[in-house]
Amino acid sequence: MTWSEMEPLLEQACWDTLYMVGWSALIAVVGGLPIGVLLVLTDRGGVLQNVVVNKVLGQIVNIARSMPFIILMVALISFTRWIVGTTIGPEAAIVPLAIGAVPFFARLVETSVREVDGGLVEAVQSMGGSTWTVVRKVLLPEALPSLISSATTTVVALLGYSAMAGTVGAGGLGDLAIRYGYQRFETELMWITVGILAVVISAVQFAGDLAARSLSHRGRSSAVPQLVLPRPARSARSAPAAAATAGTTGGPADAEAADTEPAKAP
Amino acid sequence: MITTTDLTKVYRSRGREVTALDGVDLHVSEGEVYGVVGQSGAGKSTLIRCVNLLERPTSGTITVAGQDLTALAGRGRGAPPSGSWGRAGSALRQARSRIGMVFQHFNLLSSRTVRDNVELPLEILGVSGRERTRKALELLELVGLGDKAKAYPAQLSGGQKQRVGIARALAGDPKVLLSDEATSALDPETTRSILQLLRDLNCQLGLTVLLITHEMDVVKTICDSAALMRGGRIVESGRVSDLLATPGSELAHELFPVGGVPSAEDRTVVDVTFQGEAATKPVISQLSRTYNIDISILGAAMDTVGGNQVGRMRIELPGRFEENVVPIGFLREQGLQVDVAAIADGPKTAAATRQLLKEGAK
């Protein structure tokens, strides 16, 4: 397979992946954030303590989390048809992706929000703040760096899930790697796909870490190990990350430079 | 200014009941600094949390500035179980905004600058942006942190953080300030400066301060009145100067602990408390000269309480108590408060001494 044959395939696959992951990540954040916050608020000792709501919500999240994505996708076929009117294509993949990611993100939000010091909640209550004030002025802003890390993890997980979206004909990078790379023995194309995925994931992780760190105003003492430890890793990572930002903005043509080298090796 | 009547708080968890407050009656007058002392677990924290209803009392009433807060809490909905942050109606929230609170661990939002932290209560009160900034900068100036407005809490020292906490507590123009172990996480030097600040605010703004602490030094330094808590009850309370003048007062003993045991049998050990004018008189040497007796000092403490020189001394007189009735009477005449310390040689003589002491007092 020549590059001129591969290029349109890769370009289409990149756009499909971006489309699916972008929308489902957005829905995951919009849907998972309130669920995660509600899980903390209704828990024992929470501002809105309510055992029934907490248990029901927790159980729903657990069931959704326990489902392997490929099964979730098949199980939701009729629901997907009802929502988007079709069961194939990227739109059809967004529905199960979002439904899989919402509880995943909700659990991460719950953990992040739970780490906010209860004393801060008490302080705002002593000022006469309502529950909504507590959520808006304390829980979310204080957990923000951690929430961004959670969103990053969710996006990375979604990139993994989206590889299975080919099952419903949604396309994307994972689908390309399986159909061409595995089933048609186009090893070169498969490695290019793997390379692109690696670069995209590194870029997402790097951007997420950077955003989380710049928003964190915690003490120097706790920041020191954070800043020192990743340093050797960061210098190694920044090179592909820089290429990745170029790759995502300039299209797959630029990414070629970074990815043909591992492709030539075998 | 703050009155609690028969305040009771019982925590129930897994069938077990723990009584944190057991019929507490507290009365804090307007414009005074009132200290509640006691060991951990005595119920101090529960008490101060009940005053702004962060903790809902099981029974009893709380009145702050003439307003019955327990009536606002809407107890009809049933008090939420222990440890709950609880939900508050708008009337209670409004009342809370007029009670400032300072915390042991400062509880500043790490994601906001110092100025934004002070603005937070004003945001809750719905004050406009420009007015908020003006007020926040004014308060930071008042607590001596005018130059730190743009810093984040993580960049401040403990004492500075507590100053921000105090500025924040004052943002809603409260009449009452609650201080929950505000100096317990600070070193002695910083503690003094924070206490000085609280005293200044008390004088300048006429702020009523209710503070809880386990440090007697705090009471000694700034409190007008104090209460001692044990096992959920107030065992002793009153103005500090009155407490010091009360024979056998536990608080007075805690404020001025004097130690020392008699050097031999047939000695009388006496605790003498000096206050005000009496503190400057040379009573011990007068006593020694008048009755020609040798006095040894076993222990002594001197300090300034609420601007008054106060001292306590444990002295030893030769001979049994019966032989020392006259010298002790002399000390009483000088306006000193005299307590005969429990004597080492058995409860029988101690009881006899008490009896004699009563007669002597007559």
From TrEMBL, chain A:
* CDD domains reported for this sequence: TM_PBP2 (cd06261)
Membrane-topology descriptor: Multi-pass membrane protein
Q: Key word Hydrolase present in the record?
A: no
The answer on whether this UniProt entry bears the keyword Calcium reads no
Q: Where in the cell is it found?
A: Cell membrane
* Region (Disordered), start-end ranges: 226-266
- Pfam families from the UniProt entry: BPD_transp_1
Residue ranges of domain ABC transmembrane type-1 in the record = 14-212
Bias (Low complexity) occurs at 230-255
Q: Which UniProt keywords apply?
A: Cell membrane, Membrane, Transmembrane, Transmembrane helix, Transport
Cross-referenced InterPro entries, in alphabetical order? AA_ABC_Transporter_Permease (IPR051322), MetI-like (IPR000515), MetI-like_sf (IPR035906)
- Transmembrane residue ranges: 20-42, 63-84, 90-109, 146-169, 189-212
- Signal peptide location in the record? none
| SUPFAM superfamilies, A to Z | MetI-like (SSF161098)
Kindly give the PANTHER family that the UniProt entry links to this protein.
ABC TRANSPORTER PERMEASE, D-METHIONINE TRANSPORT SYSTEM PERMEASE PROTEIN METI-RELATED
Which family, according to UniProt?
Answer: Belongs to the binding-protein-dependent transport system permease family.
Which named protein is this? Answer: ABC transporter permease
What species is this protein from? Streptomyces coffeae
Automatic annotation (TrEMBL), chain B:
Q: In this protein, which residues make up the domain named ABC transporter? A: 2-256
Q: Name one GO molecular function term.
A: ATP binding
Keyword Membrane appears in the UniProt entry: yes
- Which of UniProt's keywords are assigned here? Amino-acid transport, ATP-binding, Cell membrane, Membrane, Nucleotide-binding, Translocase, Transport
Q: Which Pfam families match?
A: ABC_tran, NIL
Q: Which Gene3D superfamilies match?
A: 3.30.70.260, P-loop containing nucleotide triphosphate hydrolases (3.40.50.300)
- State the superkingdom: Bacteria
Q: Which InterPro entries match?
A: AAA+_ATPase, ABC_transporter-like_ATP-bd, ABC_transporter-like_CS, ACT-like_dom_sf, MetN_ABC, MetN_ABC_transporter-like, NIL_domain, P-loop_NTPase
Keyword Transcription in record: no
The family database entries (SUPFAM superfamilies) matched by this protein are listed as:
ACT-like, P-loop containing nucleoside triphosphate hydrolases
Instruction: State the name under which the record lists this protein.
Output: ATP-binding cassette domain-containing protein
Q: Which organism is it from?
A: Streptomyces coffeae
